[in-house]
Amino acid sequence: MTGSPGAVLTVDLDAIAGNWQIIRSRLAAGCRAAAVVKADAYGLGALPISRALQRLGCTRFFVATLDEGVALRPSVPEAEIIVLNGVEPHTIATFRQHRLIPMLNSLPQIAAWGDAGPCALHVDTGMSRLGIPPAEACHLTPPPGLLLVSSHLACADEPDEPMNRAQLKDFAAIRLRFPGIEASLAASSGIFLGPDWHADWVRPGAALYGLNPTRGQPNPMAQVVKLEAKILQIREIDQGRTVGYGATHRAGDKSRLATVAVGYADGIMRCLSNRGHGYVGDTRVPLVGRVSMDLTVFDVSGVPSSDLALGASIELIGHATTVDDLAETAGTIGYEILTSLGPRLHRRYLPGPAQ
Ligand SMILES: Cc1ncc(COP(=O)(O)O)c(C=O)c1O
Q1: What is the mean pLDDT of the chain?
Q2: Residue bearing the CA closest to ligand 1, atom 12
């Protein structure tokens, strides 16, 4: 980094630590929490976040891919790392070398892994994505080294959806095949369905990063990220002038515009064109024209000139706009917003516990 980042993503490790504690306070007696840090902890930085969570006593992490597990290993040398996407015969040696635990998702994976070490098992109870179908799971003998049997809820963010209890019931029946083996069903939203869904381990990701696990209800989690983009240029345009590709915004009046150093290459999706907004201090500023690859334009006519000094920034995610808010404007979910935040954003970490 040259010292002049165009846009800064601030990740508050202390807020993540607070969210970890909120989750733990909700858990049924005896239930433990693992942290889901796949996709680089949803784009926020798996290594610093895992280290911070480890300091709070997190001993188990979930990643999606083998590469993610290998990259994480040196940061949490003692922890268990479970690789959700499973194992292939030619990757077994790498799993063993880095002491990674595969989530076995199929009978061929169980056969391939054999007695190569600790493993987890994923049974499908309704996602039809990965995992052993219930009919097969009911005839399974526990593989050697099995330390966790798990499944994943399809509709946990809809508490009234009957599928939640149906999956719980099917999972309970499958668990009978694995006496003495720990079990895990709930991710972020599943935790808030209540203790019936908690089993022995919960696997939150999104809630740790501040997304609302209780859709439609007030968010019990603290906001974790702030995204600020530096103003590169300010200009006045006359009524009738247009802004950006396709000339999709035409100034209805003489206007003052600020062009900031963030675009769709950074995860500010093009569908936010003429729909998004930012903040300069407490003044809301509409996003005008199309978002382009590296640049986005805001109408700052309502902002006092004193707030627009050289080097000032526009806040796109922060005190007034949550990730979930931005997602709603973009017609997507907070998960997609977070994981789209690009590598060009300078990630700055506010210190977490005991740092
Ligand atoms: C199998 C599995 N467990 C846990 C999680 C974490 O989910 P969430 O981010 O909703 O907590 C995911 C995320 O997609 C997942 O695929």
Answers
A1: 96
A2: 187
